[in-house]
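Notes from the 1:1 (GR / supervisor)

We went over the backlog. Supervisor wanted to see one worked example end to end before approving the batch request, so GR pasted a single chain during the call. The sequence is below; no edits were made to it. Supervisor asked that the structure be written out right there so they could see what the output format looks like.
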Amino acid sequence: MAHVKAKSSSHKTTNTTSTVTATTSTSSRAASSLAASRKLLKDMRSLPVIGATIAELIGTFLLVAVTISLTVTYGQLPIGFVSGITLAGIILLIGGLSGSHLNPVITIGAWVTRKISSVQAVGYIVAQSIGGYAAYSMVNGFLVNARAGDTVGNTSITMLTATPITSGKEMLVFFAELLGAAILAFGVATSLRIKRNRSTAALTAGFSLFIALTVAGSLTVLMGTYLVFLNPVISATASGFSSVYTVVDSVTKWNLWPISVYVIAPVIGGIVGFVLQDFLQSQSSDNSCEGCDNCNCGCCK
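Structure output shown during the call:
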């Protein structure tokens, strides 16, 4: 009888221990989830993040509005240079608030290299999309009520429209967009490290855009087109995705090249540009902070 009681007591002790262990594990997971949720809510409530997101919306609105208006008014010849100057000006206006990404490609590159948080990245991309669409709607609203000849130097007023990709040369245009985005991202990643002199940072980013558009645009000219975007928001406002699908005799035909060229290619290029800049910075022979404006940039680690 005593043996039976001892066995029963041991069984109860084992069950109690298992229950305590399971309860502790559940509590630990719940505490971790609660801590993660609190951190996310804290980031979302953070005023700097909200202010930076609004700054991205305003900056993207200005960049897209100028780009479209420039094309409507003067055609496409000066778009690279003036877009670069415009970007430099916008960085001087709001660069201290958000970094002036103004482009999902730059935001994704910065996120991949851990320069911004996931909350910031999502907020920036949403703000950039809204800002771009708002700019398109505004310019298009004026354009609808315009008459041919109203704009100086242009007798045929048309909205910026993506040039059809030449059949058989899609991969070449893909490479041109990727290369241009990589050049732009490399320059912007460099400018983001410059903290003490905002003018230098603005000019670095602005001329990077000019060089990227010039190089990529020159390559596309050789392929029968003459327009690159390096920015999915601008390509979307320019009807770059209008040919993704067509309906012929009640049959839907899909064409994924516009998405590949105007979204996937620049995103890959943006990531390559940021990663390359980080790699070269880490391999710099000068590991001190003397040549760096930000001791937290990683070059000293």
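Supervisor's comment: Confidence is low (pLDDT under 50) at residues 287-291, 293-301.
Batch request approved.
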